[in-house]
Amino acid sequence: MKALFLKLISVLFLVTVAVGINNTSFAVNSSSGYSSDITYEQAMTMNKPVILEFYADWCGACKRLAPTLNDIKTEYNSKFTFVCLNADKPENSVLSSKYNVTSLPSIFIVDPKTGKSKFINQDYYFNPTLLKRELDNFLKKYPG
């Protein structure tokens, strides 16, 4: 009986910790580091290719990527339009499905003229040199 009681207490403790972590994560939604000054629809009407990033506020990798992506946004703002979409928001579920987002973060380069997209290898996300090389390679081939 004592062993059962200890197991029950352990399970309750783990559930309490898990709920606490989730509540903390959702409480800091604004600290994800992502902001978009433009919507996906607006970006697709522009003449620049689009960097489309899917993230979630609870995603640790997304939070680690935010400063790098913001630096790249500053450097490449004249060459790309940047759109960051919270994949957890219901209004973004259609786009998450369209781009077959299965992990977060996920970054795509989208040609607004053709609608074609290129998924950026996730191995590049935390290496700014590789990420910039991928963007530069796209720009070399981009007819715009």
> Approximately how much beta-strand content do the residues carry?
5-15%
Task: Give the integer mean of the pLDDT values.
Answer: 82
CATH C-level of the largest domain = Alpha Beta
Structural class of the helices, strands and pairings? alpha+beta
CATH H-tier superfamily of the largest domain: Glutaredoxin
Number of helices: 5
Question: H/E series, N to C?
Answer: HHEHEHEEH
Largest sheet: 4 strands, mixed
Distance between the termini: 72 Å
> Rough shape?
globular
Tell me the total number of β-strands. 4
Description:
There is one protein chain. By secondary structure, this protein is of the alpha+beta class. It folds into two domains: 1-31; 33-141, Glutaredoxin, CATH 3.40.30.10. The chain has helices spanning 2-27, 40-43, 60-76, 93-98, 128-141, and strands at 50-55, 81-86, 106-110, 117-119. The chain has a four-stranded mixed sheet, with no helix packed on it. The longest helix is centred in the N-terminal third of the chain and has 26 residues, at 2-27. The chain is globular, with a radius of gyration of 19 Å. The N and C termini lie far apart (72 Å).
Give the SSE map.
Layout: H1 2-27, H2 40-43, E1 50-55, H3 60-76, E2 81-86, H4 93-98, E3 106-110, E4 117-119, H5 128-141
Parallel strand pairs: 1-2
Antiparallel strand pairs: 1-3, 3-4
Features:
144 residues; alpha+beta; Glutaredoxin; four-stranded mixed β-sheet; 5 helices; 47% helix; globular
Q: What is this entry, summarized?
A:
It contains 5 helices and 4 strands, in the order H-H-E-H-E-H-E-E-H. By secondary structure, it is α+β, with helices and mostly antiparallel strands.
